Amino acid sequence: MFEGDKVSRLSCNKPVGVRLKESFYQRLRVDSIAKDLLGKVLVSSFNNSLTSGIIVETEAYSYKERGCHAYNNLRTTRTETLFGEGGIMYVYLCYGIHNMFNVVTNRKNKAEAVLIRALEPLRGKELMMKRTSARDVHRITSGPGKLTKALGIGRAMDGEKLTGNEIWIEDPGTKIARNKIVVTNRIGIDYAGEDALLPWRFYLKDNPWISRP
DNA sequence: TAGAGGATTGAT
DNA sequence: TCAATCCTCTAC
Question: Buried b vs exposed e over A173-201: b needs ≥16 C-beta within 10 Å?
Answer without folding.
Answer: ebebeeebbeeeebbebeebeebbebebb
